[in-house]
Specification:
Chain lengths: 419, 419, 419, 419
């Protein structure tokens, strides 16, 4: 496909492994991963770089836990920026801001591991392998917070490579290639898909749709996907959507599009923004196909509800052991969770709420007993939430939320708050 | 196509221009381009950003020469980095390198105009418009060298956006869409294409090929393209290729592929590397289609030859007024130009030579009286050069050139050097 | 692309030309085209057939006028049906209609040239070459009416191969491959396109569109194409559309789509129906893109007007020498041409009228002085016609026209008739 | 997609059902299928035809066994050809073969049901539905042999619609759309695929391939597909291929491509030829990808072996109850089956043998105990056969087989014949 990926097979086939260059690169015996990294950083040639990138990824795959941690520590320290050099150049630039000093300063301000990652990225599948590397790192960062310096560079580079402007939305349906579909099965994070048959039930009926977002940086890998059900009303329970015995609806008669599952596919891309209009985009596409649609809503989980309740309202949490709880007891607590519990930055505590509010949604209804699965009871005492996307107000809502963290909320929800 | 480009029409159609947000963004009357830039930098919302980016590009298009220069000066100064802040943060980091300080330092080391360009880039066609903006800037930099600071940021961001890993090679032929073909006509920089008929003569015959390199950052815009003629020998004059009366060759009987024209399409991408294996890539593709091909060569211009000659060998330059010059006089001088005249970095002076040597080529033959066009006589006294790509040695040559600036050269050329 | 087309190169490359089979097929020296046809009909093998089909097409291309006529006469006579055999089998079948007799009867009723054409059709580009062969035949049929028997078989097979169900409509615009665009230039039959620049003026502006119909039987070859201008009124003169100085219209503000040129591309497909809803199809597509469009009209030539006038109204024809004629004189005659002049089958004399009426159009307005080009004056004394497609009535109009040849006509036209 | 398929939804949406035309077509209450067929044959309009075709297919789907038989009998008799008219026109033509008489004769020689089928074919999915209709018919023909007249017309039309020249070969792999893959699962006729996991084992490994043949007459429906295993030897037992524990082979090291399963997908297309070079085509494609491949072989079933044995060699059949039979006993009988047992036309009795021999294969080896599945024991006493495709001799073999039914056979097989 891409140019560089074409070159690697050439590398393998050609007889030059036995040349001076080849012998140096493929060398005798094993080489330590850090030694390979240093060789790659010293290399001037594009070919050497490519070959070494391959070898480094292979070596990384062989590392055990301990060595992997050591590798990240080396990235953190040995491949950090040269702070003394930076200070000296900053002094010079402050003195007289010439273009040459500006360029030198910019180079000095960049940790060496950024260039390392950039060179690794040119290997076939390099981006994917770096995303997985960051997944490993994120696991380690909790116990080793200093490693966050490496993570900051990962995130900085990913934000640049996954240039939002190239993001593309594609429908996923029963005519989608199987190797994409198996990823939908694997990555579904909200309501598990257990088999190809279950997948088909979410894709093939004429009142079921799915849209995924792709990026050329990782083609064939969905980044985010949204599952949609067309209905004639806003659902109060997830079973209304997932029930196998439900009757199919003629999509031309549907008035409501329900976004019932939204999954981020790659933990290694955590914190990399794909923009705040994904749902609006899907809604707009659906509206083109089905002009009769009048409302665009979600039926969403409340993943942080029980945790919050336990931490702040111990008694209530103990008294509300599962999803069969009386709505009269549960909903006022839920309203407080959504409207009063805030993160340090002033946003709602609930991560799903933050996602939809940034996307311009409004908080429309809280539903008790809405998700009686084990996970639903455990995380949220059965609570589910309807967010509404009013296409005429999405932009205004988004801007207001981004600026003031203003949560647009129905009066029905507001009334639930204890007065 | 892309998500963000879909949003803009929505912006235009929806009635929200009259909303509070709309009124603020589209405001009454004209706004100064710098005022718009400041508004965009202060904006939190994605929508505001998009709308303002559009307005800024429109305003930029209206600037006259004087105002354009003022705009770049403002980018250079007002949107520069905060050097005092950077020094202070560098001091803290040197003291204790915490992740938070690391992040703050990284942010401070980045001039504000980088974020400005990133936001502009999200507008429809943003990349293309920024590339053109840099073209304007490059014209001004000569007379205003301080503006090179802005240029350094352009180049830094372009290098990141035009991620080499996504570069794709596509054949260009008579079945290529017309809007691409008209760009081939427009961008041909070596041997001008004067009409659609002339274009067809370079694309349609079975012994003529063209390959272009594309990148998703600017789809529908070739970045570099290479024109190829299949022949039965290495040509000594460009007329052998371009002659309208030539006889077409059965491509299965061709032994030689001649790269007779290589054009970079966008001055605004000057200095952004697309890697060093473009020609190898084209050669490999050709070899797959025509296994009988034995040699891969160029017939290349010598654009800096006369200038060098005039500057160093005044007498010779005066004595060699045009392309009819006797080869015996010209070629020894040419050999010195290629083998002895070096840039400060130690590379050959000739830019075309640098391109091919980086790509792994070898200097094979110098040809007098090879380009008798006005341009050919004027730039190079009719001289043209054959570089040879030996597919088995391209990697080794590239690595040696990148490391030691070693020029691989035929003995025929070497013998021309005065002893 | 297709399987059989893949086999031919194999044929050429493999060494089997020297095998017994190869020697027989490629034989020594020239062979007469009829001899080759007989060999192909006697052949049992698929390979022999393919090879011989190629040789027959090559031989056909070499025929001079006289030999070509002789070839068609041989097709007409030697490769006709065996009428005596047919009579005998019909008698048996009348006696007892067994399946075996049914099959034998069906085979006997088919002239041998049908099988000949079917085998020729398997050669690469076979369909295209047969279509061109029929073009030649149609020229000869006038002087040699008996040859129409051959033509009937051509038409029968083409109707089957160009199965209407596979017809596909594609937009043609400035992003269309050049080898298709050059056919648009070549095949434009109504208002000539003189250059690539003129083509661009018909394709690139946002108020200009073109749609072509393709069929897999002859991919890369448009069969019919329609050029469309978006306007704010129904034009009375072709210059309103073709004027180079006209102002471009924002397509979202257009109320009217004008089909100003409709070209059949292949004379060799004369009489092969592509169905009667081509224009409705284009109109429906445009309506989806531009919901504001309110009317769908043509500005059409009247190719048979002067001929009819000369034949029936000699005086009038003499008195109306060109397109500057006073409308008061011309239009009543035109109204009679459209409403009263009928072919033997009871349809209007004018072929363009027949096309649009079958497609469900209504005759809306006659325009004098509407086409002042040489061709326009010569064929139609400057007359042009607006047909209107009322999307809600197209089906009803079509059915009524097909059944009763009923011409739906505006009262304005009807009033022009002399009372 | 296609034009006509676009029209049907228009039909449904538009308000014209209440028009005079609409009322006539959709009429009050149910209509008998034959009545609808007569209406369609009498209709002049394209729209009526389309609407009625839809209604006829719907009505056909509702028929019970008895009514379906009655429907086919009506097709056979009422929609047959008019033999008296044919005889009369044949007499006239014999008298003087004018083009008009020729045309009339051709029309009369065609049973009316051909036009009926052609009109039905224009409905969306018409071809697929007609193919299924013929499947029903083929079941009935055994008990009602006179219905074969209808079948002859089906086959005649299908042969024309499934124009061999449009057949396209496509690889099927794990990136193929799921709705195609599920058909591979459904249509696999030789070695059943029980799950998506088993499908993946046949598609994803780098030593496993699958190619399907498609035709635009029934897009998204494979017509024939071939499963291939790359190996380092010619397998003697099917388990060598299907074993789940086998080790994957590096395809660049494979010397042998084994066609281990070839499935025709549609019984309703029985007798419609897709040409005789399908396997050669697949082999050629594989050879391009893997130039190291030296031999192209099958491991094929012997579906008629036990039946033949029971009918001709009762004692032997009784003595050879299953696949564990001693090869010394079985193989001489098998050799007689392949080399001596002939159909009335002089071809081998075994249908799989006929397919491969027509395709140009050679009979290479007989393997006892090669398929120990229930089906393998039951049909063929465990026997499997290797056919070999020698790419240099395929054409010659094909031609010789088609002309003389000559079976090319290895000496190993020939020696098995009892002398």
């Amino acid at each position: 496909m891409s140019l560089l990926q074409d070159l690697i097979p050439n590398l393998r086939q050609s007889g030059w492994r036995t040349s001076a260059l080849g012998r140096r690169l493929f060398g005798p015996g094993e080489r330590d991963i850090l030694e390979l990294c240093r060789m790659m950083m010293d290399s001037d040639g594009e070919y050497s770089s490519l070959v070494l990138a391959e070898r480094i990824f292979d070596a990384y795959g062989e590392l055990d836990d301990e060595k992997r941690l050591a590798f990240f520590h080396a990235l953190n320290d040995e491949f950090d920026l040269d702070i003394e050099g930076l200070q000296s150049l900053a002094g010079e630039y402050a003195n007289e801001p010439t273009p040459d000093r500006f360029r030198a300063l910019g180079a000095a301000a960049e940790p060496r591991r950024q260039e390392l990652f950039r060179r690794l990225n040119l290997a076939p599948g390099g981006t994917r392998r770096l995303v997985r590397m960051r997944e490993d790192l994120l696991e380690l960062v909790r116990a080793h917070p200093m490693l966050r310096r490496v993570d900051i560079d990962f995130r900085h580079l990913f934000a640049s490579w996954f240039n939002r402007g190239f993001l593309v939305m594609q429908p996923v349906d029963w005519t989608t290639p199987a190797h994409i579909l198996e990823k939908i099965i694997a990555y579904e994070a909200v309501h598990e898909i257990r088999s190809w048959e279950e997948l088909r039930r979410r894709l093939e009926p004429s009142d079921r749709y799915c849209f995924a977002f792709f990026h050329p940086a990782m083609e064939d890998e969905p980044l985010v996907f949204v599952e949609v059900a067309l209905t004639d009303h806003m659902p109060a329970r997830i079973d209304e959507i997932l029930d196998r015995e439900r009757e199919e609806l003629d999509p031309d008669e549907a008035s409501c599009a329900v976004f019932y599952s939204i999954s981020n596919c790659h933990r290694g891309l955590a914190g990399v923004s794909f923009g705040n209009f994904l749902i609006k985009q899907v809604a707009t596409r659906l509206k083109q196909s089905f002009p009769e649609l009048r409302s665009f809503v979600t039926i969403s989980p409340a993943p942080g509800f029980r945790r919050w309740l336990s931490s702040t309202e111990e008694d209530a949490a103990r008294a509300l052991p599962d999803g069969n709880t009386d709505a009269d007891d549960l909903l006022p607590l839920a309203a407080r969770y959504y409207l009063e519990a805030k993160s340090p930055s002033g946003e709602p505590l609930d991560p799903v709420a933050r996602f939809h509010l940034r996307n311009g949604a409004e908080l429309a209804r809280l539903n008790a007993g809405a998700d009686l699965s084990d996970k639903g009871r455990e995380q949220s005492l059965g609570l589910m939430v309807n967010y509404v996307y009013d296409l005429a107000r999405v932009e205004e809502n988004h801007e207001n939320y981004m600026k003031h963290h203003k949560v647009v909320c129905s009066s029905a929800v507001r009334k639930l708050l204890p007065t």
